[in-house]
Amino acid sequence: MNFSYRDDQLLVRDTVRDFVRSRIVPEASGWNENGEFPLELLPELAALGLTGLAVPHEYGGAELDMLTIALVMEELGAGDGSVALTIAAHNSLCIGHLLIGASEEQKGRWLPPLARGEYLGCWALTEPSSGSDAISVQSRARRDGDDYMVSGTKQFITNGSIAGFAVVLAGAGERKVSAFGLRRGTAGLRVGRREEKMGLHASDTAQLVLEDCRVPAPDRIGRDGEAFNDVKRVLDRGRIGIGALAIGLGRASLEIAIGYAKERRQFGRPIADFEMIQWRLARARTELDAARLLVHRAAALADAGLRFTDAASKAKLYASEAATRAADSSLQVLGGYGYLQDFPIERHLRDVRLMEIGEGTSEIQRIVIARELLHVD
Ligand SMILES: Cc1cc2nc3c(=O)[nH]c(=O)nc-3n(C[C@H](O)[C@H](O)[C@H](O)COP(=O)(O)OP(=O)(O)OC[C@H]3O[C@@H](n4cnc5c(N)ncnc54)[C@H](O)[C@@H]3O)c2cc1C
């Protein structure tokens, strides 16, 4: 076992940490109040390589391994859940699908502008009536000469209304899906409702509506009707990122609670002297450390080219739930002040809750883990 990080990994982590502290933390509350992703931040994120995290150098990306990406996602999460989720959807989902399923020709066309941050990408799998049972999509991709005609509604799409490029999954027969790469402005593709959410207010979530959207056959990603295996591989990697992001949100909440507990005095003493406060802090720190070990183990397995599906599910399941507990407990340490918007904990708590839902709910992670335990397909 090796519990240390390489110098280059620490350099990336510390660079992102400094950027988050100077550029994201001071602005995050305002961005969330505006309820929009700050697109003006995109060139700065791109300059740090954050818009092409895993993209090979030949396509203009940072070519980072999964463990380094986990370190980056934790730092972004510690700054703002919305910015972190925007980056996660762009990298892990949209670009992640291209890295797994696209041909070299498609990668050459699509990856460089995404990696340069010219525009954001999104990944559209979920539909109004197909969530956890993702393969049961109602959308349809029908062959029409050299093209496909794609119709359907995609639901809950992160970056949906601001992305310049979308990977769209559409039905291709009974329990079969195909993937397509679509540029913004393609005739027949429009943005539907923009969702109002409990948290993550600066992360864009929108419906995408496709009405007889004509997509040239060379823009199909992977084999016809066989995209679901790629979807599963995309989600395996994505779950590591979501786990890391959650840890960042939990960690940021805990750091505030530790500082507050030492300052705040009641009954003539700092509240940090009370064992019940110490218990909360100690439990949160221990669970976040355990979560990080699970996340980093999954990332290390992925980097070693080993199977990591159930490791990623365990990491995402535990990290998202531990981080929610940590944020909730941290809020309690601040008493009434924790409930005010004066501190970012209330925002972190609302943001972190999504991590138990997105990219497969906790229930779905338990199913994946049990399947592995019981050897059922
Ligand atoms: C803010 C946000 C951003 C998102 N971003 C994206 C995105 O970028 N792209 C995208 O494609 N999707 C995205 N999603 C969709 C997300 O992945 C789904 O919401 C999630 O997978 C759950 O699907 P559902 O909401 O339809 O819930 P459902 O599948 O309807 O589940 C409802 C409840 O039933 C439970 N359940 C379902 N099946 C089972 C079972 N077999 N056993 C036990 N319990 C079960 C679930 O765990 C859940 O508690 C996003 C969602 C949100 C809220």
What would you note in describing this structure?
The structure is a single chain. The chain has helices at 7-34, 42-47, 66-79, 81-101, 104-115, 228-263, 275-303, 309-333, 345-352, 362-374; strands spanning 120-124, 140-144, 147-158, 163-171, 177-183, 189-194, 205-216, 220-221, 265-266, 269-270. With 377 residues, it is of the alpha+beta class. It has 3 domains: 7-119, Butyryl-Coa Dehydrogenase, subunit A, domain 1, CATH 1.10.540; 121-221, Beta Barrel (Butyryl-CoA Dehydrogenase, subunit A, domain 2); 228-374, Up-down Bundle (Butyryl-CoA Dehydrogenase, subunit A, domain 3), CATH 1.20.140. The strands form 3 sheets. The chain has a 4-stranded mixed β-sheet with strand order 1-4-5-8. Strands 2-3-7-6 form a 4-stranded antiparallel β-sheet, covered by helices on one side. The chain has a two-stranded antiparallel ribbon with strand order 9-10. α4 runs antiparallel to α6 (228-263). The radius of gyration is 21 Å and the shape is globular. Bound molecules: flavin-adenine dinucleotide. Flavin-adenine dinucleotide (FAD) binds at residues 89, 93, 122-126, 131-132, 156-158, 197, 200, 205, 354, 357-361, 363-364.
